[in-house]
Amino acid sequence: MKEWKQFLGPYKQAVAELKVKLKGLRSQYELENVHTPVEFVTGRLKPLASIYDKTLEKGIPFEPSEALAKELPDIAGVRLMCQFVDDIGKVVQTLRQRTDMRVIEERDYISNKKASGYRSYHIIIEYPVQTIHGEKTILAEIQIRTLAMNFWASIEHSLNYKYKGELPDEIRHRLERAAEAAFRLDEEMSLIRDEIHDAQKYFSAFKETPDSDYGEQKWKGE
Fold first, then answer.
1. Which residues contact 4 (CB under 8 A, 6 or more apart)?
2. Which of 31, 88, 118, 180 is at a distance of 20 to 30 A from 155, taking alpha carbons?
3. pLDDT in tens, the chain (222 residues)
4. What are phi and psi of 130, to 5 degrees?
5. Which whole-number Å values give the CA distances from 144 to 4, 104, 129, 166, 186, in the listed order?
6. Catalytic annotation on 3?
């Protein structure tokens, strides 16, 4: 277990650092008083159980190694959520231009959705982590998706876990239809994004007004 902790240490550090850096994007856009394409950021370290399942799938030894690090580029994972589909492209372009990471692979599951209906944009990066033994460059995955895509993906993941990847046909078909419905929602929201931006700016300004009683009314249910 000590070997695994040492092996996963840089990945855990990378997740923490990337979350801080990518959350900083939102703050920077807010300071410029422009629409931020980043709604919120989450991150996770791949559990050992999931790593074990992947090694079985890929036919590689379940042990800390360079081979495992190369075959599993998503041990460190960060997810960025956006309000609109168009925001995803802006985030991707921003990540390509950064000098503290290097994009080495992109997978567009939005233009080319998976058979299940899954949509998301995946980027594999090389990221340097500073350790007491010097710099160590690891692979990490950044997933970029809308809130609607994320809701669907979370439900699909839970159902796949429950049925061990063998979804009943009825549920699978319903998920496919739900995926299309979620994407249509994203498309409709994109058509009125200007109105949404204006409403959000107005709402934010209203909340910050000293004599605003919005909060009191909200709690009273008015």
1. 48, 64
2. 88
3. 889 999 999 999 999 999 999 999 888 888 887 788 999 999 999 999 999 999 999 999 999 999 999 999 999 999 999 999 999 999 999 999 999 999 999 999 999 999 999 999 999 999 999 999 999 999 999 999 999 999 999 999 899 888 888 899 999 999 999 999 999 999 998 888 777 767 766 666 666 666 655 555 554 554
4. -90, 120
5. 28, 16, 22, 26, 14
6. no
For the chain, state the CA radius of gyration: 20
Three-state SS at 122: strand
Sign of CA pseudo-dihedral 95, 96, 101, 107:
positive
The residue annotated as part of the active site, out of 30, 126, 141, 195, is: 141
117: left (phi over 0), alpha (psi -120 to 50) or beta: left
